[in-house]
């Protein structure tokens, strides 16, 4: 048997313990900042958000349609891909900037339009647009947002703002909203086309989600220990939806203004004429519709299954991306959303040919976790993940990302290429 040397031991000196006793210096950080400092991923923000937000608003953000298969598959598509890095590349300086729809963005992603944002946190869309402005990225205000077109512009005059609208039954209201967005400096119009009717969002039914939040015994007990959320809601101005007009009853607008399931591609003509600027169609899920959108004169398309919130069992938009870029990428700007949770997801989509990526749930988790500071934290997390992933892949600019850096796996039949 070999003889092994014994460790030479001694009593520890006080100075030996000092490195192990050092505490993180969080002096000067407020309560919210200390909470957010523990979040290193979007999933961390999600956990904080769930603890601090009543179940109705949280699950409105977190959930999807029916069995939530489309939502899960969109996320699964990003998890299944492989990266193929290059080595021995000088990556000490990384440029994450890009251009989209004729304007600059400091990062290859922007904040997608989301409805009812002030229900997630009273700071709402104003907080999101200010955070987007600091990050140097665009933010799209939703038609069913909870801040007016003018108020959002006043909150962040220098931020790049887009406006998202549905093809409403009330064409006059649509035209007035388009005109207001133009007046207040919004530089792109996104028309969402995958909501002829609302999806069957079962979590909203289960958790009693309503507009505005209604107090029942169940929702009262659920919200009773989320004192800050209720305090913020009740002590700030009552919210109204972006589409609402003074003097028009909310119920009348809800009945007449949405779910126009008679619209067709031909309806894009009056939108394009009224807007006159960059026009994007959001909700494209087949190559045939991508081509028809381009033929209708749009400047961009967003491959999207609405985050899995409309028709369940839809294919992941990421799987359609390479074919869509080949089919229409020379004629229009192809963007993507749905399933994006990390900066590496963003990088993968760009490498596969996307011009730009929209993120929604990611920043809403930050908003619920810590208001405006939480949105800043979400943007910071995604930015550092984008930068790190680019460096590890061996690239220093968005233009250097190519399909050679990524390989997609599909567990199911390929997306139809018709």
UniProtKB/TrEMBL annotation:
PANTHER family: 2-HYDROXYACID OXIDASE 1, S -2-HYDROXY-ACID OXIDASE-RELATED. This is Alpha-hydroxy acid oxidase. Belongs to the FMN-dependent alpha-hydroxy acid dehydrogenase family. It holds the Pfam family FMN_dh. Residues 34-411 form the FMN hydroxy acid dehydrogenase domain. Its cofactor is FMN. It is an enzyme of class 1 (oxidoreductase). CDD domains: alpha_hydroxyacid_oxid_FMN (cd02809). GO terms for molecular function: oxidoreductase activity. It comes from the Bacteria. SUPFAM superfamilies: FMN-linked oxidoreductases. Keywords: Flavoprotein, FMN, Oxidoreductase. Its EC number is 1.-.-.-.
